[in-house]
Design brief:
The protein is an alpha+beta fold and about 160 residues long. The chain is built from five helices and four strands. It has a four-stranded antiparallel sheet with strand order 2-3-1-4, covered by helices on one side. A hairpin with a 2-residue loop joins strand 2 and strand 3. The longest helix has 21 residues. The protein is elongated, with a radius of gyration of 27 Å. It starts with a helix and ends with a helix.
Length: about 160
């Protein structure tokens, strides 16, 4: 089989060279038209809203802060999904928008909705803050380390300096 391929290439070397030139030319044209980015966005546009509520338990943060903000943000244009997390003294809402949406306009819309809703939050709660943009490549991998033999501080040192 290999003898036949080599024999064809030797007998028709002009055809093989012309075919190689066509393939290389196609590759150069394809690279010239390709949309390349150093760090491509592989996740849809997102916005994160954080609100501090010092002194409130997670259940209170959920009912007094997170739910009110979710209700205000639910009708945002281009919104695909909304996820929230309420922990002691902090409410975090992650808004995911449809692919190809104009993130600047969406953030403007979210900011306007947050401004209107800020007055309805409890007196101790802070103003809702729209976090700065971050690339989706920022969090590519998250791991957890456990050990029965090492202390949490030793595991932290291992994660920081070895991994």
């Amino acid at each position: 089989m290999l003898n036949a391929v080599v024999g064809f290439a030797v007998r028709f070397c002009g055809v093989v060279i012309a075919l190689a030139i066509v393939i290389v030319a196609y590759g150069v044209i394809a690279i010239g038209q390709a949309r390349l980015d150093v760090f491509p966005e592989f996740a849809p546009p997102q916005a994160v809203v954080e609100t501090e509520a010092p002194g409130l338990a997670p259940e209170q943060v959920e009912t007094l802060v997170t739910q009110r903000l979710e209700n205000a943000l639910a009708g945002a244009r281009g919104l695909a999904t909304m996820r929230s997390k309420s922990i002691q003294g902090l409410s975090m809402i992650t808004l995911t928008f449809h692919e190809g949406s104009d993130l600047a306009r969406l953030r403007q819309s979210v900011t306007e909705r947050l401004t209107r809703t800020a007055a309805e939050l409890p007196a101790g709660a802070g103003t809702p803050v729209l976090l700065p943009l971050s690339s989706s490549a920022g969090i590519v991998l998250t791991i957890g380390i456990t050990s029965a033999k090492q202390t949490p501080m030793q595991l932290r040192t291992l994660a920081d300096w070895t991994l």
